[in-house]
Design a protein that fits this description.
Keywords: Hydrolase, Membrane, Mitochondrion, Mitochondrion outer membrane, Necrosis. By secondary structure, the protein is an alpha/beta fold. The chain is 30% helix and 17% strand.
């Protein structure tokens, strides 16, 4: 819904100067800026917690978040916002990262919560959620993709840099959808805790993947994939 032709009413063009008017209106609807999307997987957390509130970051997870925050700050970019999953491990990761990015606003959303986006192909034996989960979580995660991953608004004048702190399944699905790869292949991608995935969305809608699950800024003994 960002393609310029989809944003204007073609029936209203003037009969005599229609082509000129159409060109002018199309130009007005075209995006001018590039969006940089940084998808951050939450840090290592307590797997023994029964409820979400108990699944807090481990001491190592807190270290990982510090390293991720320093890495993002070192890029020297003017980040516009941090949008994060409302789950405890993502919220805690965001709080630590945000200390390194003072002044950047934080927004919590349920859309980015972890879940089962779509039945993986090929299937795996170690992870088989109930079929209903794909219908419940899948619609929500697809809604997150449509809400957040799109070309810039036509009114946006400068390039933007946004951070999304969420979960491995959500990020893997988003990457497949953004690159127009079969989304059923999402489980073939693997992401470390605290990793950085960088998507670039050009004004014409084309998407490029600059980094996938980067943790090269972490010492080897700090890298986990739980």
């Amino acid at each position: 819904r960002r393609e310029p032709l989809a944003l204007i009413n073609l029936k209203k063009k003037h009969e005599e100067t229609g082509e000129e008017e159409l060109a002018s209106r199309l130009d007005h609807c075209k995006a001018k800026a590039t969006r940089h999307i940084f998808l951050i997987r939450h840090s290592q957390y307590n797997l023994d917690g029964r409820a979400d509130k108990d699944r807090t970051l481990t001491p190592l997870g807190r270290e990982q978040a510090e390293l991720t925050g320093r890495r993002l700050a070192s890029l020297g970019l003017k980040f516009d916002q941090i949008i994060h999953s409302s789950m405890t491990r993502a919220t805690e990761t965001t709080e630590i990262i945000s200390k390194h990015l003072p002044g950047v606003k934080k927004i919590s959303t349920d859309l980015l919560r972890e879940g089962a986006p779509i039945e993986p192909d090929p299937p795996v034996s170690h992870w088989k959620p109930e079929a209903v989960q794909y219908y419940e979580d899948g619609a929500r995660i697809e809604a997150a993709f449509r809400s957040f991953i799109h070309r810039a608004d036509a009114k946006q004048e400068e390039d933007s840099y946004e951070i999304f702190v969420c979960h491995a399944n959500v990020i893997r699905y988003i990457v497949c959808r953004a690159l127009q790869f079969p989304p059923e292949g999402w489980l073939r991608l693997s992401l470390n805790n605290g990793s950085i995935t960088h998507l670039v969305i050009r004004p014409n809608g084309r998407v490029a993947l600059r980094a996938l699950g980067d943790t090269g800024f972490m010492p080897p003994d700090k890298i986990t994939r739980t």
